Amino acid sequence: MTKCKFIKNFTNFIKIAVAFCDKARREGLLALEEELEDLDDNDFKIGLRLVVDGTDGCLIEEIYSYMIENEKNKYKRRYKTIIKRAVLGIQQGINLRILILILLAIADLPHKEQSKIEYELLRD
């Protein structure tokens, strides 16, 4: 994965992750089950399936840590780290603004890109 592709994937992912987090906070974790089939991101789908099934957060953390450890490409590692943190945040019912700020910090985007995403997601 290149840096450019990482930024594109992250920009799309964060919007989806925030929507899932919002739905889980409003309707509960089981409400995410109906959305899983439409997800294209298999790593995110795996994590959300574990959350919906009631898997302990420590086990989810361990599973993702192995996935990240085995990834050679630095941008894919960072992307999987972002997915892990989003999944755990959704499971914990984290505040949307905090989730956005955490994911942006992990992404370590150029200032212009980060500001654009922050504006889109935090303007409400």
Short descriptors:
single chain, mainly alpha, 124 residues
Short characterization:
Helix content is 74%, strand content 0%. It has 124 residues and is mainly α. The N and C termini lie far apart (32 Å).
- Give the total of domains: 1
Shape: globular
Task: Calculate Rg over CA atoms.
Answer: 14 Å
Which spans of ≥5 residues are poorly predicted at pLDDT below 50?
Answer: none
Distance between the termini: 32 Å
The largest sheet is:
none
Helix content: over 70%
Q: How would you describe this protein?
A:
With 124 residues, the protein is mostly helical. It has one domain. Helix content is 74%, strand content 0%. The chain contains six helices and no strands. The radius of gyration is 14 Å and the shape is globular. The mean pLDDT is 94.
Give the helix/strand layout.
Elements: H1 3-27, H2 42-52, H3 57-69, H4 74-92, H5 96-107, H6 111-122
